[in-house]
Fold these 3 entries.
Entry 1:
Amino acid sequence: MAEKDQQVHPLAPANKQPRSDEESAGLQAKELKRKKRIKYAVYIAAFAVFQTAIILVFALTVMRVKNPKVRIGRITIETMETNNTGAAAAASFDLKFIAQVTVKNTNFGHYRFDHSTMSFLYDGVIVGEAIIPKARARARSTKKLDVTVEVNSRALTNTAPLGSELSSNILTLNSQAKLKGKVELMKVIKRNKSPEMNCTLTFNVSTRNLQDLNCK
């Protein structure tokens, strides 16, 4: 009996050949490029956030324009005459002093203001005025101006409250002023600003000195 044909079994597929060095190098290069792109994207995002923060801080600090503050900083009395020896209705006063007006500018630009009038009142009646000259308060600084002031009681129609106050060796005056000017930022941006002053001056008649000064 003839031998049975020998069965032929297909050979198992041979193991795949390992990638060549060129293929491995190409994959590594692509991976490096991908990581670099991610790194650059992170850098760009971080820079954008940083730049936005800088612009925000710049807008909230440098570009923000605040109202300067005008105050009376100091009083130097030259002459003071008061009369309360007779009836209260005959009470009077006559003062001459130098008021140091300060204009505090906290902005990052100069503040230029025009001349203005500073009024002094007793019991709501104007008893004297003085001129604050026009000037410039530099950025982040305080401008000081010496203003000569003369006040007296001639405009008072009722001096009874004055007589009562002088009997306590006290004389109280109120000072008011309003400046009009502009804050200039980088010589491009200009903002109108009009700070106001309201000060209360209390003089000690017996010592001929300023006893208290309160401004707001």
Entry 2:
Amino acid sequence: MPRKFIVGGNFKLNGSQDSLATLVEGLNKGSLDSNVEIVVSPPFVYLDQVRKSVRKDVAVAGQNCYSKASGAYTGEVAAEMLKDLGIEWVILGHSERREIFKETDDEIGQKVAHALKAGLKVMACVGEKLEEREADKTTEVVFRQLAAVAKHVSDWTNVVIAYEPVWAIGTGKVATPQQAQEVHKAIRGWLKEKVSAQVAEATRIMYGGSVNAGNASTLAKEEDVDGFLVGGASLKPEFVTICNAKAKM
């Protein structure tokens, strides 16, 4: 069964009520490929606004959530709260969460498991830093991050893996289609060996890292690239073009 192409827009710490209303209006009026699953992820305080105003064929994701349902965890948001708002997805393990907020592989694995249990679908992020790539440790790092998820997750049905080389996020540098395909193929191989052939075949693997309207259609041609997790470009009109990249092939 072919894997449905998926494009996520991670707005990060950007936006206001007015700017997101304009962005949503652009999506609502845009001609979007019906064969592509599209998910947008605004900051927590705008989730409800975007969910209520965006077209029904575009889903909404939280940018993070905690591994507990409730309690004395000031500043945290539970997966159950996202679900209560009608949010379908959450992004977990983003490199900015790992680097800036010091989230560990195991913490991320626990978060993924809890989010799935709460009924959310998860974009689980993995990826190496520049020095790790230059030291030829890309797969070592990515496999370690995947293993931390596999330790806590047995059912991968609602997991999408987002491969984001850290050196390409927001830098303007993009992994070549060959570099992206190489790692995506390795991830699929790891899933086949460590989880199952069925999970390896079914699991979608997104690429993230300075994806834009100019490079999306080329990246989308690669066999194991099943979508994109888009950062800065998701805040621009070109996001519609990226969502339609597969249709241009």
Entry 3:
Amino acid sequence: MKIYTRSGDTGQASLFNGERLYKDDDVFQALGDVDELNSALGVASAFISSPEMLEQLETIQSRLIDVGSAVATPLPSSDEAKLQRTHFAGTEHTAQLEAWIDSMDESLPKLTKFILPSGGQAAACLHHARSVCRRAERSIVVLSRRQAVSSEVNMYINRLSDYLFTAARHAAMTQGAVEKVYQKARS
């Protein structure tokens, strides 16, 4: 199988359900944002020293492929077999993120001020991934409001940004890097 098909040369691409849409459609915007998030996590992983966090990020990257599958199979225009195949068990996966957040949070100093995206390479990359995650969430909300994607996908992506914020703080702490604190401008 070749990597190129030429089927997208006219500006359209196919979803999992076979529907062809223009590449500037909201579905492809969300798919692209989720894909970019997955790539950002791959970059962050290159700087992570914790085997446990690396394992978590690898699991998350796999779940993001599942999110993409759910997004590429719009609820209103897909048959039951395809919907079952791409069903995203968001409640279960979100609970896993929450458990990881709680575990990391136990060892972190209490947050009393706004922090800037900082704290060394790993933390800065995780903060960047968090920002990309927020964009992906905004793209998915558009689809969720149209009931084209399950609200469980939305819930997972929302919690993932919380995980990435906590993971960035945890990476900074474990690597002995300083998190920079926001300083309000003087009038």
